[in-house]
């Protein structure tokens, strides 16, 4: 297997996880009754409210950390921290995989196993963050795209880690190493 595919997948997983945790669409609720409508979007970092009331429209987003009127539930803080850790690990495994793939001289042992292990751990952390977030259910809300993006990023990261573990040096480079040993 080629490590380049693993690099692309781990980079894609990192981007998906970063987008998923940044957008305020982890939980969504909406109601529409008698000409009045309201919707609430909640993410890891902000809550957005949109309502259409005759004579007044409200469209406002609040950062969860800035609002002193309420405390942020602990499961949101935990999920956010776990997802940040997963993104950092995904990014570091991608960088390490690129470095190990680009530096492939005959004297350097070509291995991306470390990137594979880091990538698998990042995928498990991304899935764990989603599980922590889903452990508390709020009636009337349903999970939305940010939640799904982090699940997909976790699965892609695990697949990328497996590809890193299966990656081998190109055949031509292996022959170069064998010739230098016997020369």
How would you describe the overall organization of this protein?
The structure is a single chain. The protein is elongated. It has a five-stranded antiparallel beta sheet. The protein has 183 residues and is α+β, with helices and mostly antiparallel strands. The chain has a single domain, classed as Up-down Bundle (Butyryl-CoA Dehydrogenase, subunit A, domain 3), CATH 1.20.140. It has five helices and five strands.
| Helix-strand makeup class | alpha+beta
Query: Which CATH-level-2 architecture?
Result: Up-down Bundle
Q: Which word captures the global form?
A: elongated
Q: Can you count the helices?
A: 5
- The assembly state of the depicted protein chains is single chain
**Overall average residue pLDDT:** 83
How much strand?
15-25%
- Bin the helical content: 55-70%
Rg over CA atoms, rounded to whole Å, is 22 Å
User: What characterizes the major β-sheet?
Assistant: 5 strands, antiparallel
Q: What is the CA–CA distance across the termini?
A: 29 Å
Q: Number of domains in the coordinates?
A: 1
State the CATH class: Mainly Alpha
Order of helices and strands: HEEEEHHEHH
How many DSSP-defined strands? 5
Residue windows where pLDDT falls under 50 for at least 5 positions: 171-176
Protein name: Claudin
Organism: Dreissena polymorpha
Keywords: Membrane, Signal, Transmembrane, Transmembrane helix
């Amino acid at each position: 297997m080629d490590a380049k595919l693993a690099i692309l997948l781990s980079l894609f997983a990192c981007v998906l996880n970063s987008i998923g945790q940044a957008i305020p669409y982890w939980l969504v609720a909406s109601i529409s009754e008698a000409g009045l409508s309201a919707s609430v979007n909640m993410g890891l970092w902000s809550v957005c409210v949109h309502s259409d009331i005759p004579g007044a429209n409200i469209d406002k987003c609040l950062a969860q950390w800035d609002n002193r009127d309420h405390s942020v539930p602990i499961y949101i803080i935990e999920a956010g921290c776990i997802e940040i850790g997963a993104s950092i690990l995904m990014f570091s495994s991608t960088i390490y995989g690129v470095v190990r793939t680009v530096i492939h001289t005959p004297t350097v042992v070509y291995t991306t196993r470390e990137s594979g292990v880091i990538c698998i751990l990042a995928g498990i952390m991304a899935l764990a963050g989603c599980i922590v977030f889903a452990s508390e259910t709020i009636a009337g809300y349903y999970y939305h795209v940010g939640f799904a993006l982090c699940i997909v990023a976790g699965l892609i990261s695990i697949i990328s880690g497996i590809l890193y573990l299966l990656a081998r040096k190109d055949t031509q480079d292996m022959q170069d190493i064998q010739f230098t040993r016997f020369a």
